[in-house]
Amino acid sequence: MDNVQETAGGFGEFALIERLRSKLRASDNPDVVVGIGDDAAIIEAGNGKCWVISCDVQVQGTHFPSEGVSGFSVGHKALAVNVSDVAAMGGTPRFALISLGVHGDVPLAFLDEIYEGMNAKAESWEVVVLGGNVTRTEGPFFIDVFVVGMMEREDILRRSGAKVGDQILVTGHLGDAAAGLYLLNHPELKSKVSDETHTVLTFAQLRPHPRVHEGKVISSLHLATAMMDISDALAGDIRHICSASGVGAVIWEHELPISRSALDLASLAHVDPEEWALYGGEDYQLLLTAPVSAVPVLQEAVRTASGTTLTPIGEILEERKGLLLQKIDSTVPLEARSWDHLK
N or C: less crowded end of the chain, CB within 10 Å? Predict the structure, then answer.
């Protein structure tokens, strides 16, 4: 019988991550505060401060369309998704390095626009882009960002602190990015929605806004018990918190904060907007847990600091109860469905 060699395509993204993680030796270096398994790694910087480090790659045709998207949006998103990882730990982004994989026919104007997009957002987030690397690729164009942030050690928020009885909260709206992707994939709908709806939804997909200020406020209050950003979809990311914390959860479908723009498009397209909110991904909102008594304080602090809403959408349960979705008339298992790069 011939040997059949396993390939990466036979794994889901997270199963592959766990396989590769098992190959790494657990670090006993005292300077490593948070290693693999969270939104970012955290390293001692001395004097009660820590470095927060993360990297993420954006690939043409996978993370952004091969045609019809500006270099400005590509640069914006590439930096934003990395900044979001730092925000998810409660940190402040400071520095970035950029690696490009370029094939010979990439227009120079497109590359110029990418750096214009990065520079525009780097300035608003007070991030300094220090340089990086360029290589040739025969595959699709890609941009890989390595970001470094700073934070107080006492303010670190991980995925692993959720407690039974905590409420689950999210910043902003859910599903706008997925709705924006739907709109980009159905250009015939552009003329049927308002200019405001088109801008809100497509920008949510192409130019996400990481919740840096909100993350700093939440972490500094020391009231939240766990936090991460929503990149792979709410249904997938609440699983990460539950797995890390050894708990279960119930999501209240009727409480999901869905924008008027997403609701309008869903009605026009005959799509269930809760599908976008639960399973769409790339919202880059913050997903956190906190005791019920702390929720009003957190809501007021976030609203005052940034104008952003903080909405309770569920509750942390005992692990044995699993992950549930509470609908208006029934409670069902929460589907294990989210963005997976290898599916």
Answer: N
